Amino acid sequence: MLITCPECGKRISDKACTCPNCGVPIEAIGGSSGLSDQKRSVAVVFAIFLGIVGGHNSYLGYKKRAMIEFVLAVIGFFTIPVFGLGAVILFVLWVWGIVEALSYKTDGEGRLLR
Ligand SMILES: [Zn+2]
């Protein structure tokens, strides 16, 4: 992917460590570098409080996973009256969400978490 160098305005690869034209370090360029705007610690907090409905995945930009967890949470909620089945689903979802948030190294766009 090509990004625009903030120093000289030249189109450069986001894989480059420094701009080949003016030498500015690419790490210094906020969101367009390989570093995510999101923090894993925040994702874990999201997972603890909203993990059942995919809160951590929404935060990190894993939209498809967040959607799947939300759907499973709805199924879990409605199946609680069925022998408490839903409670088991919700508990597994909650634990899974925390493990998932802890294991992420990148956000939904593949940028490294802070
Ligand atoms: Zn440059």
What does it look like?
This protein is mostly helical and 114 residues long. The chain has two domains: 1-33, no CATH class; 40-103, no CATH class. It contains four helices and two strands, in the order E-E-H-H-H-H. The chain has helices spanning 40-50, 55-60, 63-78, 85-103; strands at 2-4, 11-13. Strands 1-2 form a two-stranded antiparallel sheet. The longest helix has 19 residues, at 85-103. The protein starts with a strand and ends in an 11-residue tail after the last helix. The model has no long low-confidence stretch (mean pLDDT 89). Zinc ion binds at residues 5, 7-8, 10, 19, 21-22, 24.
Helicity, in percent? 40-55%
Average pLDDT level: 89
Secondary-structure-based class equals mainly alpha
Shape: elongated
Write down the Rg: 19 Å
Find the count of extended strands (DSSP E, 2+ residues). Answer: 2
Relevant terms:
single chain, 114 residues, 2 domains, two-stranded antiparallel sheet, 4 helices, 46% helix, elongated, binds zinc ion
Task: Walk me through the topology.
Elements lengths: L1 E3 L6 E3 L26 H11 L4 H6 L2 H16 L6 H19 L11
Antiparallel strand pairs: 1-2
Helix pairs in contact: 1-4, 3-4
The chain binds zinc ion (ZN).
Short description:
The protein has 114 residues and is mainly alpha-helical. The chain contains 4 helices and 2 strands, in the order E-E-H-H-H-H. It folds into 2 domains: 1-33, no CATH class; 40-103, no CATH class.
